[in-house]
Amino acid sequence: MANILVCEDEKNTLGMICKLLKENSLVEEIFPTCSGNAAVEIIKKQIPHILLLDIDLPDIDGIEVAKIARAFDPQSSIVFITGYPDYAQESFIVHPYDYILKPIDIDRFNRTINNLIVKCESNMLNNKLKSARKLPVRVKNRVLFLNMDDIIFIEKNGKDTTIHTRRGLFMCNENLKSIESDLGCNFYRTHKSYIINIGIIEWIESLGDSYEISFYNYDKKAYMSKGKYQFIKDRFL
After folding, report:
1. Which of 40, 43, 191, 211 could anchor a disulfide with 229, C-beta 3.0 to 4.6 Å?
2. pLDDT by position in tens, the chain (length 237)
3. Tell me, which fold does domain 134-236 have in CATH?
């Protein structure tokens, strides 16, 4: 479910957009307004997930509204709806999700809104999982929720990914880049094939061409690339 701000000074267009949004069961609340200044006040009080902004407004323009919104919530999604294609390049400064020209293509509009709501739900869930220190991992036809504090390290072997935890080993097919984005700040990518929990490192040992990482109360080892080790060496040795 998403809260959406609509800022459009043309009343008929504002009414049409709000009508389309009300027909979408995934939209929780709509904040309609005709001015940029009013939009800014709504943004400060409500922090909507999605902003649908006209650019040519009677007071401050939609691009300035978007800049203010970014300061309050960098994850907010912005869509410009305007009759002027010339603003497209200027609007890129706030990284809009879409730029829809009037007259509005209803099918495109609905697709954009549905895609944004899925994106918002995903972001909200990821934030809650990180706060709860849970890592969701697909294992066959199930989703396993691992406690991040139980994870020792993660390694990639071909197509398989092995997660070493205090509860045992768990296998999945997810890539390390995807897993890394879901982990907390105490995890570190030491190698293209390894992510480690830096809170339980015991030592790092040079073995000539490779660098071995040992952990407290765990006998299996992870590895560090030469470039990463050089940074550790310069910083601490």
Report:
1. 211
2. 899 999 999 999 999 999 999 999 999 999 999 999 999 999 999 999 999 999 999 999 999 999 999 999 998 999 999 998 888 888 899 999 999 999 999 999 999 999 999 999 988 898 899 899 999 998 888 999 999 999 999 999 998 999 999 999 999 988 999 999 899 889 999 999 999 999 999 999 988 778 999 999 999 999 999 888 887 777 665
3. OB fold (Dihydrolipoamide Acetyltransferase, E2P) (2.40.50)
In order, the DSSP letters of the chain are: -EEEEEE-SSHHHHHHHHHHHHT-TTEEEEEEESSHHHHHHHHHHH--SEEEE-SS-SSS-HHHHHHHHHHH-TT-EEEEEES-GGGHHHHGGG--SEEEESSP-HHHHHHHHHHHHHHHHHHHHHHHHHHTTEEEEEETTEEEEEEGGGEEEEEEETTEEEEEETTEEEEE---HHHHHHHS-TTEEEEETTEEEEGGGEEEEEE-SS-EEEEETTEEEEEEE-HHHHHHHHHHH-
Ranges for all domains in the chain classified under CATH 2.40.50.1020 = 134-236
